[in-house]
Amino acid sequence: MNDEQQKPPYAMIAILFVGAFIAFLNNTLLNVALPTIMTEFQVKPSVVQWLTTGYMLVNGILVPASAFFVQRFSNRKLYITAMLLFTAGTALAALAPEFWVLISARMIQAAGSAMMMPLLMNVMLTAFPIERRGSAMGMFGLVMILAPAIGPTLSGFILEHYEWRVLFEIILPFAIIVLLFAIFKLRNITPNSKVNLDVFSLILSSIGFGALLYGFSTAGDKGWDAPIVYGTIIIGFISLIVFIWRQLKLDEPMLDVRIYKYPMFALSSIISIVVSAAMFSGMILTPLYVQTIRGISPFHSGLLMLPGAIAMAVMSPVTGRLFDKYGARSLAIIGLIITSVATYLMSNLARDSDYYYIMAVYTFRMFGMSMIMMPIMTNGLNQLPMNSNPHGTAMNNTLQQVSGAIGSAIFLTIMNAKMESSAIALTSQATAAGKVPTSTEGLMQFQVELGKNAMLEGINFTFFIATLVTVVALILAFFVKRVDVLKKAKP
Question: Which residues are in the Major facilitator superfamily (MFS) profile domain (predicted)?
Answer without folding.
Answer: 12-485
